[in-house]
Amino acid sequence: MGKEHILIVEDEEDILELIRYNLVKEGFSVTGLTSGETVLDTVKAKPPDLILLDLMLPGIDGFEVCRGVKRNPDTRHIPIVIVTAKGEEIDIVTGLELGADDYITKPFSPRVLLARLKTVLRRKQRESVEPDAVLQIAGIQIDPGRHEVRVKGKPISLTFSEFRILHTLALRPGWVFTRDQIVDAVRGEGYAVTDRAVDVQIVGLRKKLKSESECIETVRGIGYRFKEP
Fold this sequence. Notes:
The protein has helices spanning 13-25, 39-45, 62-71, 89-97, 110-126, 160-171, 179-187, 195-209; strands spanning 5-9, 29-33, 50-54, 80-84, 102-105, 135-137, 140-143, 148-151, 154-156, 177-178, 216-219, 223-226. The protein is of the alpha/beta class. It folds into 2 domains: 5-126, Rossmann fold, CATH 3.40.50; 135-226, Arc Repressor Mutant, subunit A (Orthogonal Bundle). It has a 5-stranded parallel β-sheet, with helices on both faces. The chain has a 4-stranded antiparallel β-sheet with strand order 6-7-8-9, with helices on one face. A 3-stranded antiparallel β-sheet has the order 10-12-11. A hairpin with a 3-residue loop joins strand 11 and strand 12. Helix 6 crosses helix 7 and helix 6 (160-171) packs across helix 8 (195-209). It is elongated, with a radius of gyration of 19 Å.
């Protein structure tokens, strides 16, 4: 099996070289770009296993690059991790809504960066699991076919929305879902619901999960994720 290929898009060359150095040391194959203009052509010519994308790029910014990659059926499967000095909630939420898999704010630790990238790559490998397959994560078993959930072997009763939220989060452990993405997964796009309604569903779900309630993590100001086992 060959090295996993990471495409770094970063206009600050010292940061690009720092990231490249640490990734190559870990055994990754790396390509570096300093602007967004050639990203789509590069990705089509040689699809990477993951894109590490700065938002503040000259010319085409990171949001447009992310949008372009995720809109193309041939490239939308490629995970994108945003690296940015723009740590405001609105920027992070916008990136996630466009399809980014994770985000890291500058300044960052190279060790943390590597850990987050490896988590996203592991998640990509797991996503070959059929959506109707029974999931067993820690003490929780989720059976979509039977619409059943067991916690440490004991069945618990969930509403339709609670079940869909739990199943959606559990299919992609570690993935940060915004509240809008959770609503889309449960009810479909365009369904009018408030952020508060999502929070209420999560509170009820945690109560029913009892000892396993900590598996659902709050990402402050953004949404929720299922904790990596």
